[in-house]
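Anyone up for a design puzzle?
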């Protein structure tokens, strides 16, 4: 069984930043992520972002490019081992050898590992739309990543569901290809960063339909229209070729909850924000999975670094290096 000082569950920007700081503190570190479409992708959700303009050091860069740079930086550290494996379980494992030492066993879809401390950087998963036609037409007109397949809608009509900044960004990406984009939102006004909101107002391709819900997605082989709960221009059916969903996300805390980590009412991991500590000794959390109101890549990266330093101090206090049975 491979043994490490620190195991980081999640290989997004937060987890990768944590691994870099752990390595700089001379901690043997393993990072678990996946590149096969699971909820823990290497690079994280930033890879679904078209243009990033709020990360220090880069005036403008795509999410994919930024994620790649962070990953390459992490891989430069010999003490960092990034494994594209899916973590199935994390357990506290007490090893008795003259004294009792708290260690953790991490079981993946391929193997088992041991670590002296664990950092959860599992991020969030995109919330799916649960209405008639949403499952039937997924990848047949219903999508969750405009950056991934926006080019398929060149000169077509597309609807974006949601009213957050993420929904606005999706609409702006789709405008690069589609001839018409509707933003359909149940609230009275969309909530986006001022800069993005101005772009929407200035773009003649975009029409915002407020106080309205989509109740059904229609189609044959592909999406042909959506049904609205309120009339728009005298009709409750709106012809579209595609529907992009941006209605929020949920924290990926299944593993942490099973281990005994405390969550808040939103399902987020409760941490001491000064040190990123959870209620369990040797267990830390950082990034979008933690209970903070402001979630950005830059804040997640900072928390990842803090979590790594806290893990280092914890292991130093216990005089524990590379948790293993001698």
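Challenge accepted. My sequence:
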């Amino acid at each position: 069984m491979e043994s490490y000082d620190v195991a980081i569950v999640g290989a997004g920007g937060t987890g990768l930043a944590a691994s870099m700081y752990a390595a700089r503190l001379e901690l043997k570190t393993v990072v678990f992520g996946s590149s096969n479409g699971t909820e823990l992708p290497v690079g994280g959700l930033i890879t679904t972002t078209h243009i990033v303009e709020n990360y220090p050091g880069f005036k403008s860069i795509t999410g994919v490019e930024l994620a790649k740079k962070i990953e390459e930086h992490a891989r430069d550290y010999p003490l960092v081992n990034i494994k594209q494996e899916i973590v199935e379980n994390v357990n506290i494992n007490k090893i008795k050898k003259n004294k009792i030492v708290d260690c953790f066993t991490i079981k993946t879809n391929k193997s088992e590992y041991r670590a002296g401390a664990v950092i959860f950087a599992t991020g969030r998963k995109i919330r799916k739309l649960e209405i008639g036609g949403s499952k039937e037409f997924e990848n047949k007109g219903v999508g969750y990543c405009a950056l991934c397949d926006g080019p398929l809608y060149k000169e077509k009509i597309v609807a974006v569901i949601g009213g957050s900044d993420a929904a606005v960004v999706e609409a702006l990406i789709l405008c690069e290809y589609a001839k018409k984009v509707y933003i359909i939102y149940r609230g009275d006004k969309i909530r986006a960063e001022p800069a993005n909101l101005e772009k929407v107002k200035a773009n003649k391709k975009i029409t915002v339909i407020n106080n309205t819900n989509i109740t059904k997605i229609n189609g044959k082989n592909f999406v042909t229209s959506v049904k609205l709960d309120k009339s728009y221009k005298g009709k409750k059916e709106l012809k579209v070729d595609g529907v992009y969903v941006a209605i929020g996300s949920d924290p990926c805390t299944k593993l942490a909850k099973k281990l005994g980590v405390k969550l808040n009412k939103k399902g987020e991991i409760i941490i001491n924000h000064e040190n990123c500590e959870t209620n369990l000794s040797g267990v830390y959390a950082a990034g979008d999975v933690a209970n903070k109101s402001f979630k950005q890549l830059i804040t997640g990266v900072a928390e990842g670094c803090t979590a790594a330093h806290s893990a280092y101090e914890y292991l130093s206090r216990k005089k524990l290096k590379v948790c293993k049975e001698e």
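A detail worth pointing out: The two ends are 12 Å apart (CA to CA).
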